[in-house]
Amino acid sequence: MIRTLTILATLLVAVAASAVELSDSQRAAIEERIAPIGDVCLQGDTSCGGPAVAVSSGPRSGQEVFDAACMACHSTGAGGAPIKGDVDAWAARIAKGIDTLHQHGIEGIPGTGMMAKGGCVNCSDEEVIAAVDYMVEESQ
Ligand code: HEC
User: Fold this and answer.
1) pLDDT score of 15 more than 90
2) N or C: less crowded end of the chain, CB within 10 Å?
3) Residue 42 and residue 27: Cα distance in Å, rounded?
4) For residues 20 and 61, what is the distance between their CA atoms, to the nearest angstrom?
5) How far is the CA of 134 from the centre of ligand 1 (A)?
6) How many angstroms does the Cα of residue 91 sit away from the middle of ligand 1?
7) CA-to-CA distance for 117 and 107, rounded, in angstroms?
8) Cβ(139)–Cβ(84) under 8 Å?
9) Is 69 exposed, middle or buried, given 0-12, 13-18 or 19+ CB atoms closer than 10 A?
10) pLDDT digits (tens, 9 = 90+) for 69-100
11) So what's the pLDDT on residue 19?
12) Which residues line ligand 1 (CB under 6 A)?
């Protein structure tokens, strides 16, 4: 009886030992299966395939900002917005001076549809100024 138990115990130990002895490829396969779904890739860390969000390559051009953030109103005249290219509509505004137009582009005009930065929350002051210059250039 004791002998049988000893054999049994030895067998169990052998089985248990073999269960934890994994080959490298088995280990790699398991690690892959239990790996987290996503990795955090910090900006600037190139070891994980580059940054997930493209780092801005500098300020956008006036036209790019216009197309993305101003066109909705300034190509349609929505809310009385002066349309880009409408020389008459822009003449009186241009007469106020470019600094005023830049300021109104950045701060908006209270009580009108012209919100601060035309509502473009991710536009820098610099980009809004470029968009104003672009509209003015195209409208005289
Ligand atoms: C939701 C509509 C809307 C969007 C979007 C919008 N505008 Fe305007 N904008 C207006 C309206 C309306 C006016 C005319 C306001 C008035 O004088 O009554 C105006 C006027 C202006 C003027 C003339 C200001 C002046 O002093 O006469 C500038 C410059 C201007 N917008 C720049 C921009 C720029 C740059 C963007 C994009 C970044 C933009 N706008 C986006 C509605 C908009």
Assistant:
1) no
2) N
3) 27
4) 60
5) 13
6) 14
7) 6
8) yes
9) buried
10) 999 999 999 999 999 999 999 999 999 999 99
11) 61
12) 65, 69-70, 72-74, 78-82, 93, 96, 100-101, 104-105, 109, 112-114, 117-120, 123, 128, 131-132
Residue 83 Cα distances to 11, 52, 73, 76, 129, angstroms: 87, 37, 8, 6, 17
Q: Look over the chain and give the mean of its residue pLDDT values, rounded to a whole number.
A: 87
- The pTM for the full model equals 0.70
Report residue 106: phi and psi, to 5°.
Answer: -80, -45
How is residue 11 written in tokens? Answer: 């067998």
**32-74 pLDDT tens trace:** 888 777 767 777 777 776 555 555 578 999 999 999 999 999 9
- Give the nearest ligand 1 atom to 119 CA: 5
Domain borders along the chain are: 2-35, 62-137
Q: Give the atom of ligand 1 at the shortest distance from the alpha carbon of 102.
A: 29
Nearest CA-CA partner of 60 in 8, 13, 120: 120
Distance between CA 76 and CA 123 in Å, rounded? Answer: 21
Look up tokens 């505004």; give the residue.
Answer: 93
